[in-house]
Design brief:
The complex is a heterodimer of chains A (658) and B (159). With 658 residues, chain A is α+β, with helices and mostly antiparallel strands. In chain A, 64% of the residues lie in helices and 11% in strands. Chain A folds into 3 domains: 1-165, no CATH class; 197-408, no CATH class; 516-617. Chain A has 20 helices and 10 strands. Chain A is globular. In chain A, 55% of the residues are buried. Chain B folds into 2 domains: 7-102, Helicase, Ruva Protein, domain 3 (Orthogonal Bundle); 108-136. Chain B has 6 helices and no strands. Chain B has helices at 8-24, 39-49, 68-82, 87-98, 112-136, 147-158. The chains are: A alpha+beta (658), B mainly alpha (159).
C-alpha cells in the first residue's frame, strides 16, 4: 500500500509539473498575473509529491521490501543501514528519482526565494524548470519505474555492488546531482531571459548565486568521487579520464566559465549573449553526462546500469532542451546588446581569456570523450582515448589559465594598467620560480612535472594572497591586515577559490611526479623498505564482516626505528555479488600518505604486498575543498542577500522591482 | 524468477565456491612474479603498460586491470622489452594482434588528426573571437540610459 502511494505521488507530480510548465508560460505571455501566480504553488507541490515518492522508496529499502524489483536487485537484508539508505540512489531508477527530487527542490527554492524577481521572469523560470521536471518524470515513469513490483518476491536481495558500499559513495551522487541539476536553474534563467528578451545586471545577479551553488556542489561531488577512487581501487589513482568522470568535469568547467562571465554581465553589462550561451551549454553538458552514464554508448568503468533504450529517451530530452534553447538563442541573441565598454587591458578582457580557456578545455574533454564513438561511425576505426591524450591536450589549458590568473585577477575594470599589475606581482613570480627551483634541486633525475607544478601552484596561491593584500590600501601592516579582514566576503571567496586551484594544481603535479611505489612478496614477519620507511608484515588473518569476508593484514611502519603507524589493509569478498574489493590502509600525513595494500597469498609462501608513498595526496582534496569554500564565501556575500534589502527599498520608495 | 531465490543451503555452497574462486584469481593488477629484475626495463614496461587498454574491461589500462588478459599483455610487453624492442615496436606488436583499440594514446594518423588538432584550432578560433569582441567594445560612446531607466534613476535620486 505504501508503495502504491509513492507510485501515485510520482504520477501526480508529473501532472503538476505539466501544469507548472503550461499555465505560467501562458500567463506570462498574456500578462495574466493569476496564471503567473500558479507557478510558485505548483513548484512547491511538485517538490512535495516527489519527496513523498522518494520517502516511500527509501522506506522500501530500509525495511527490505523485496516485492520491489529495484530493492531486490540492489539490496540485501544483511547490508548495513547506511548502505540500505544510500542504496536508494545506488541504482538507475533510484538515482533518477533523486535527480528529479533535486530538480523539484531547485524549482521550489526559486518559488520560495524568488520574491524579488519580476513576476513574469519568475513565472517563466519556474515554468522552464517545471518542463525539465516533466520530461524527467515522464522518463522515470515510462522507462525506469522505481515502483515496479515483482510477482513473486524473493527471500532476499542481490545486494548492492560492493564498490558502492562505502561512505564516500553514499554522498558522492547526491552532491554531484545537486551540482548537475543546480545548473538547470542557470538554464531556466537563460531560457526565461531569452523569452523575455531582456538580460541585464539584475538578471546576472539573480542567476549567479544559483550557478555558484551548483558549482560548489559539483566541486565537492567530483572531489568525493576522486577521493573514493583513490582509497578504494587499490592503487591510489584519483582521476582516470573515464567518460563518466569527464561527464561531470565538462559541466564543472563550463559552470566555472559561467560564474566568471556572469560577473561581467553583473558589473559591466557586457558578454550577455555569451553568458546565456554558457548557461545553456553548462546544463546541456549535464544532460550529455546523464546520457553517457545511462546509455552505455561509451564504455566506462561506471556502467552500473546502462540501457540503450533509456539512452534514446535521454537523447530525446537532450535534443529537445538544448536544441530548443539554442534555437531560441539564435532568434533572440541579437536583442542582447552589450553596454559596457572596456579596453584591451582590463578585467573584462582577462575574464574573456578565462572563458576561452575554460570553454575550449571543456570542448577538448568533450571531443576526447566522444571520439571513440565518432571515429567508429565516421571511419570505422575502433580507437581509444585515454590519459595520455588528455594529459597532452588538456593540461596546457590549465597551465595557461594558472599563468594568467593572478595577473587578470588584479586588473581594474574598464581600463587596467598591465605594468602596475605585473610590477606588484614580480616578487610573487620570483618566489614561485625559486620554489620550483628548490623542488628541482631536491629531486634528482626526475621529470620536470613536479617543479613546474610547484612553481605554478605557488604562483597562483601567492598571487591570490597578494591580490587581497593589495586591496587593503596603504598604511601600517596592522592597519592593512585590519582592512583586509573587513574586505567583502566575495573578495575572500575569490582569493580562497583561486588559492584552492593553485593547491590542487601543485598536488596533482606532485602526486604524479614524486610517487614512490613498491610491489613485492613479503613473508609474515618480513620487513621491507618503502622510501624512507620500513614496513613489517606482522600477521595476516581472516575476519567476518556483516556481509563480507575479509583477509586482514597487520603492517607496522617505522622510520629510523621509531614507530610511525600500525596499518590494517584488507581484501574483502562480498559473496552475494561474488566480488572482491581492496580496502587499502591509509596513513595520512601533511606532506604524504602511506598507502598499503594486501594481495593474494603466493604459491611459494608469503603475500603479495603493495606499498606507496603518495606525496601531498591530501592537498588535492584540500585544494578542491578550498575552491568549494571560496564559492561558499562568495555566495554568502552581502551582495546576494540584496533580496531583503531590495524589497525594503521597494516598499519605502515605491520603486518597481524590475 | 527462481534465479532470485537463494535458499540457505545454496547460499552457503555458493559462498564457499566464491571464496575459492576469489582466492584463486589475482585481485589486483601488476603482481610481483611478473616483474622484471632489471629496474630500468621494468620501469619502461610499466610506462608502456600505462598506455595500453585492457581489451575486455571497461576503460582500464592493463596496468590497473585485474583481468587475466591484462596479465598476459603485461607479460608480453615485458618479453618484448627484454628482447630489445623499442617502445614503439612493442606497441606495434600489440596493435597487430589486438587492434588500435588497445592504445589509450590515439595515433596521430588519418582522421585522428581531427582529435589532436581540435584543441589548438578551437583555441585559435576562441582567441580570434575574443579579440574581435574586445575590439568591438573598445570604442564608441558609452550608451545613454533609456527613457525608462532615466525616470527610475530620477525617482531613486529624489528618494
Amino acid at each position: 500500500m505504501i508503495v502504491e502511494i509513492g507510485h501515485f505521488a510520482l504520477v501526480l507530480a508529473l501532472m503538476v509539473a505539466l501544469v507548472q510548465t503550461v499555465l505560467p508560460l501562458w500567463g506570462a505571455h498574456r500578462r495574466d498575473s493569476g496564471l503567473m501566480a500558479m507557478a510558485g504553488p505548483a513548484a512547491i507541490a511538485q517538490f512535495l509529491l516527489v519527496a513523498v515518492a522518494f520517502a516511500v522508496l527509501t522506506h522500501a529499502f530500509v525495511v527490505s521490501d523485496f516485492s520491489l524489483a529495484v530493492v531486490t536487485a540492489n539490496s540485501h537484508t544483511l547490508k548495513p543501514m547506511l548502505y540500505k539508505v544510500s542504496g536508494v540512489w545506488g541504482n538507475h531508477e533510484g538515482s533518477l528519482l533523486l535527480w528529479v527530487l533535486i530538480l523539484a527542490l531547485f524549482g521550489a527554492s526559486a518559488a520560495l526565494f524568488g520574491s524579488n524577481l519580476p513576476a513574469s521572469l519568475k513565472a517563466r523560470v519556474i515554468a522552464v524548470q517545471g518542463s525539465i521536471g516533466a520530461a524527467f518524470l515522464g522518463f522515470l515513469l515510462f522507462t525506469s519505474n522505481p515502483f515496479a513490483r515483482l510477482q513473486v518476491p524473493p527471500m532476499d536481495g542481490q545486494d548492492l555492488n560492493p564498490l558502492l558500499q562505502d561512505p564516500g559513495l553514499a554522498f558522492h551522487p547526491p552532491f554531484l546531482y545537486l551540482g548537475y541539476v543546480g545548473l538547470s536553474m542557470a538554464f531556466s534563467f537563460a531560457v526565461a531571459a531569452l523569452i523575455e528578451g531582456r538580460v541585464d545586471a539584475a538578471w546576472a545577479r539573480w542567476v549567479r548565486p544559483w550557478t555558484l551553488a551548483a558549482w560548489v556542489f559539483l566541486t565537492i561531488g567530483i572531489a568525493m568521487g576522486s577521493w573514493w577512487a583513490y582509497y578504494e581501487l587499490g592503487w591510489g589513482g584519483f582521476w582516470f579520464w573515464d567518460p563518466v568522470e569527464n561527464a561531470s568535469f565538462m559541466p564543472w568547467l563550463l559552470a566555472a566559465a559561467l560564474l566568471h562571465s556572469a560577473i561581467v554581465v553583473e558589473k559591466r553589462e557586457s558578454l550577455k549573449a555569451w553568458t546565456i550561451l554558457l548557461a545553456i551549454m553548462a546544463f546541456g553538458f549535464s544532460l550529455i553526462g546523464t546520457f553517457i552514464v545511462r546509455s552505455g554508448v561509451i564504455t566506462s568503468v561506471h556502467s552500473f546500469a546502462s540501457d540503450p533504450e533509456r539512452g534514446m529517451f535521454i537523447l530525446g530530452i537532450l535534443a529537445f532542451f538544448t536544441g530548443g534553447a539554442l534555437i531560441l538563442f539564435a532568434i533572440r541573441a541579437t536583442s542582447m546588446e552589450a553596454k559596457g565598454l572596456f579596453g584591451m587591458v582590463s578585467r573584462e578582457s582577462a575574464l574573456i581569456a578565462n572563458n576561452i580557456l575554460l570553454a575550449v578545455a571543456a570542448l577538448v574533454v568533450f571531443i576526447g570523450t566522444i571520439w571513440p564513438l565518432a571515429a567508429e561511425i565516421l571511419t570505422g576505426r575502433t580507437v581509444s582515448v585515454g590519459e595520455p591524450f588528455f594529459n597532452a591536450a588538456f593540461t596546457p589549458f590549465f597551465i595557461l589559465l594558472a599563468l594568467i590568473l593572478p595577473v587578470g585577477a588584479m586588473l581594474a575594470w574598464k581600463r587596467g594598467d598591465l605594468g602596475r599589475a605585473i610590477k606588484g606581482l614580480v616578487p610573487v613570480a620570483l618566489l614561485a620560480i625559486a620554489l620550483g627551483g628548490l623542488a628541482f634541486a631536491m629531486q634528482t633525475g626526475r621529470s620536470p612535472v613536479g617543479p613546474i607544478g610547484a612553481a605554478l601552484g605557488a604562483w597562483v596561491v601567492m598571487g591570490a594572497g597578494w591580490d587581497l593584500w593589495s586591496r587593503s590600501g596603504r598604511g601600517s601592516v596592522a592597519d592593512r591586515l585590519g582592512r583586509m579582514r573587513r574586505l567583502p566576503r566575495a573578495d575572500w571567496g575569490k582569493a580562497t577559490a583561486h588559492a584552492g586551484l593553485g593547491v590542487t594544481i601543485f598536488a596533482v603535479a606532485a602526486m604524479n611526479a614524486w610517487v614512490v611505489e613498491d610491489i613485492l612478496v613479503a613473508e609474515v614477519g618480513e620487513t621491507f623498505a618503502l622510501g624512507a620507511y620500513d614496513v613489517t608484515l606482522v600477521e595476516v588473518h581472516q575476519e567476518q564482516g556483516p556481509n563480507y569476508m575479509a583477509t586482514m593484514a597487520e603492517m607496522r611502519v617505522t622510520r629510523d626505528g621509531a614507530e610511525v603507524a600500525v596499518m590494517f589493509p584488507e581484501k574483502r569478498i562480498y559473496p552475494v555479488q561474488a566480488m572482491p574489493t581492496t580496502e587499502a590502509a591509509l596513513h595520512q600525513g601533511f606532506t604524504r600518505d602511506l598507502y598499503l595494500v594486501i594481495g593474494d597469498p603466493q604459491k611459494g609462501g608469503g603475500w603479495a604486498v603493495r606499498g606507496y608513498i603518495k606525496p601531498f595526496a591530501n592537498w588535492i582534496w584540500a585544494g578542491s575543498l578550498m575552491m568549494a569554500l571560496g564559492g561558499f564565501l562568495s555566495l554568502s556575500d552581502r551582495r546576494y542577500r540584496v533580496a531583503a534589502g531590495a524589497r525594503k527599498a521597494a516598499a519605502i520608495k515605491g520603486v518597481p522591482a524590475e | 524468477m527462481s534465479g532470485f531465490f537463494r535458499g540457505d543451503a545454496r547460499n552457503r555452497a555458493s559462498y564457499g565456491l566464491v571464496l575459492a574462486l576469489a582466492f584463486a584469481t589475482p585481485v589486483w593488477s601488476v603482481l610481483p612474479d611478473e616483474m622484471l629484475p632489471d629496474p630500468a626495463l621494468e620501469a619502461r614496461a610499466r610506462e608502456i603498460s600505462r598506455e595500453v587498454r585492457c581489451p575486455v574491461c571497461q576503460g582500464e589500462t592493463i596496468d590497473d586491470s585485474n583481468a587475466r588478459i591484462s596479465r598476459d599483455l603485461r607479460i608480453i610487453i615485458r618479453e618484448r622489452v627484454v628482447a630489445g624492442d623499442s617502445d614503439d615496436e612493442v606497441l606495434d606488436f600489440l596493435v597487430e594482434r589486438y587492434g588500435e583499440f588497445v592504445l589509450f594514446n590515439p595515433r596521430k594518423t588519418g582522421a585522428n588528426w581531427i582529435l589532436w588538432l581540435a584543441g589548438p584550432l578551437m583555441l585559435l578560433a576562441g582567441l580570434g573571437l575574443g579579440y574581435a569582441t574586445i575590439r568591438s567594445r573598445r570604442s564608441g560612446p558609452e550608451e545613454a540610459l533609456s527613457g525608462d531607466e532615466q525616470d527610475q534613476l530620477d525617482k531613486i535620486l529624489k528618494g
